[in-house]
Amino acid sequence: MMDASQGYHQIMLSLEDRKMVSFITFAGTFCYVAMPFGLKNAGETYQRLVDKIFHPQIGRNIEVYVDDMLVKSKEARDHVADLEETLSVLRKYKLKLNPGKCAFWVQGGHFLGFMVTQRGIKANPLKIKAILDMKVPTNVNELQRLIGRIPALSRFISKAAEKSLPFFKILRKVKNFEWDISCQQAFEELKSYLVGLPLLVKPFQGDTLYLYLSTTP
């Protein structure tokens, strides 16, 4: 797992674009020579860069999201070669890494809010605990807090929308908040389900995949 140093600042701006990001200080007017944070399209620009330079590797031995990189190998003996390939690309395009946020030869770790392991992808334990520790909502704000924590785990929860439906029905009655039996049952079932969330793994080639669609009449 690797993290780029200074992120967007590693992308230099063209001369004609520098005047678009000027700023005024007590010492005078200045402009950025590298892409600053805060620009509306800065994230997209950086993502296009890494998508382009790592195109031959993405999906094969690397996954990249903006300045976060995960080098992966099917076999331990291939990992050195995969790292060398990745580092050579970074060296070619003069992109620097943050040593303090890099970890090499690990079997698992946090990546984009998930626990990535040799066996597959696990839900973040902290996000699970955040819901398990919640008490029964007593008002709309507490209910919205509960609903807001579910999407981070939805890919691990079968029929997450259906399991959360009783909560959304209450929101339609903002003036008369009433935690009924269906909500209590859904709340308890959700917590029970979170205790044993499944592990997400890549499907084997040739396996039959089933697609379930949820529609509203």
Compute the number of strand runs.
Answer: 8
Taking the sheet with the most strands, its summary is: 3 strands, antiparallel
- Mean pLDDT, all residues: 88
**Gyration radius over CA:** 23 Å
Report the uncertain regions.
none
What is the straight-line distance between the termini? 45 Å
Structural class: alpha+beta
The domain count comes to: 2
Helix content: 25-40%
| Broad shape | extended
Order of helices and strands: EHEEHEEHEEEHHHH
The strand line-up of the biggest sheet is: 1-5-4
Q: Quote the beta fraction.
A: 5-15%
Brief descriptors of the model:
217 residues; 8 strands
Quick structural gist:
This is Reverse transcriptase domain-containing protein. By secondary structure, this protein is of the alpha+beta class.
Please provide a written account of the structure.
The chain is α+β, with helices and mostly antiparallel strands and 217 residues long. It folds into two domains: 2-106, no CATH class; 125-195. Helices cover 35% and strands 13% of the residues. The protein has seven helices and eight strands. It has helices spanning 15-18, 42-53, 79-92, 125-132, 140-149, 160-171, 181-195, and strands at 2-3, 22-25, 28-31, 62-65, 68-71, 108-111, 114-117, 121-122. The strands form three sheets. A three-stranded antiparallel β-sheet has the order 1-5-4. Strands 6-7-8 form a three-stranded antiparallel β-sheet, with no helix packed on it. Strands 2-3 form a two-stranded antiparallel sheet. β2 and β3 (28-31) form a beta hairpin. α5 (140-149) runs antiparallel to α6. The relative contact order is 0.09. The mean pLDDT is 88.
